[in-house]
Amino acid sequence: MLFSLHNSFPTYPGTELWGWVIDPLTSQQIGGMLIWVLGGTVYSTSAFRFLSQWFDLEAKKPERPRHLWDNREAMLAPGVEE
């Protein structure tokens, strides 16, 4: 809708915004812009919250002892047997 070069709706009532007469295509593009901005804001906020919660959960996990980090078994990918 935002980048459309033609009106998507066959009939469209005349629009007026704060005394300015806006043609249907411009009105449609403004609506598309609002949809993108609001949708992007909601999506970004949700993603930030979920990532923040995930990182908090990871930070609360107890640290593994160092001697368990570099043994041969810990370095193998899951499913790989020696």
Structural commentary:
By secondary structure, this protein is mainly α. The chain has one domain. 50% of the residues lie in helices and 7% in strands. It contains 2 helices and 2 strands, in the order ββαα. The protein has helices at 24-60, 72-75, and strands spanning 15-17, 20-22. Strands 1-2 form a two-stranded antiparallel ribbon. β1 (15-17) and β2 form a beta hairpin. It is elongated and about 75 Å long. The mean pLDDT is 83.
Low-confidence stretches: none
Q: Tell me the count of domains.
A: 1
Shape: elongated
Spatial gap, N to C terminus:
57 Å
Question: Roughly what fraction of the amino acids lie in strands?
Answer: 5-15%
Physical arrangement of strands within the biggest beta sheet: 1-2
Helix content: 40-55%
Number of helices: 2
Give me the Rg, rounded. 27 Å
What is the averaged pLDDT score? 83
Give me the strand/helix succession: EEHH
Instruction: Sketch the major β-sheet.
Output: 2 strands, antiparallel
| Helix/sheet category | mainly alpha
What's the β-strand tally?
2
